[in-house]
Amino acid sequence: MVMWVFGYGSLIWKAGFNYDERLVGFIKGYRRVFYQGSTDHRGTPEYPGRTVTLEPAEGEVCCGVAYRISNKEDQEVALTYLEVREKQYDKKAYLDFFTEPNATTPAVSDVMVYIASPDKKHNVNYLGPASIEEIAKQIIQAEGPSGPNRDYLFQLEEALLQFGCKDAHVMDLASEVRRILSERELTST
What we know:
- GO terms for molecular function: glutathione specific gamma-glutamylcyclotransferase activity; transferase activity.
- The longest helix has 21 residues, at 168-188.
- This protein has a single domain (3-188), classed as Gamma-glutamyl cyclotransferase-like (Hypothetical upf0131 protein ytfp).
- The chain has helices at 72-85, 132-141, 149-162, 168-188, and strands spanning 3-7, 21-38, 49-69, 91-97, 108-115, 143-144, 147-148.
- The protein is built from 4 helices and 7 strands.
- Helix content is 31%, strand content 33%.
């Protein structure tokens, strides 16, 4: 049995497990949003960072990468690793993954994806929607064991642009973070 994992956040640039193949593509019916709180990687319980999760959105697509893992031992190691890394994501879904914009048949079916649901009973770290400015300010303030939250945002923006994906939410947020940071720099000099 081959296992496929879809990455739409930091998994794009940092898998952290062995894989046989990496495909660039997208899933349908979801959009990437910075609504998940991170108290273990990009923030702390006192100052949670914000990381991406998926939100159902009819007609939308979310680009990312799919990793194929065929070796049984590599699959077990990857699953164990992902269960720790993605522990604040309370839901797993198995979705169709596409590599061609006009394709009606998926390149791969049943790609596993971790989702942080808005269900506060099962996902205590869900932060939910906020204005771009509020999210940007929270990202600027947050830092955790994996580094500053803004690095996560900028690395995601760069990784997406490298394969031609212009995600408006990510790009608007990155622009707002840069604007606030440059304003602060100007007022401090």
